[in-house]
Amino acid sequence: MNLDIPDGKDPIQYAWGEMVPGIGPAAAHLSLAVYEHTTLGLREFEAARLRVAQINGCLFCLDWRTDRDGEKVEEGFADAVTEWRTTDAFDDRTRLAAEYAERYALDHHGLDEEFWARMTARYSQREIVELSMCIGSWLAFGRLNRVLGLDAMCVIPGKP
Questions:
Q1: In terms of pTM, does the model score above 0.85?
Q2: pLDDT score, position 154
Q3: Which residues form a coiled coil (predicted)?
Q4: Are 96 and 41 in contact (CB under 8 A)?
């Protein structure tokens, strides 16, 4: 589906703000908070974010790379995320972040004791909650933008 966006209107600002003024700005604040207030390492953050983007198919999210004070993940990182099970480019935390993102998005009922034992061996409960909120945000908003045809024009609110 492609939303009917009035001429001269920014598609994201129109859909996220004007169409649903009681919900959209709050959603935009959550989306920004995930980037501005995360305590997760860049590689694990990006592994989870990119895995959700791959699952959602959000064009903007697939092209986006999180920048932290001029640092971004290396070229080819997205390919490694696709191959998270077998790549030698990831440490245990990064691999688990990609796995968790995939299972959260596709098989959350299958998160079993074996998975949680591996996860809690590498992540604190606080980090797991934070990563879960990040994944939930990306899953919801990336999918929203893709489903409504906004992803080709998407700009994270408040970012240039």
A1: yes
A2: 58
A3: none
A4: no
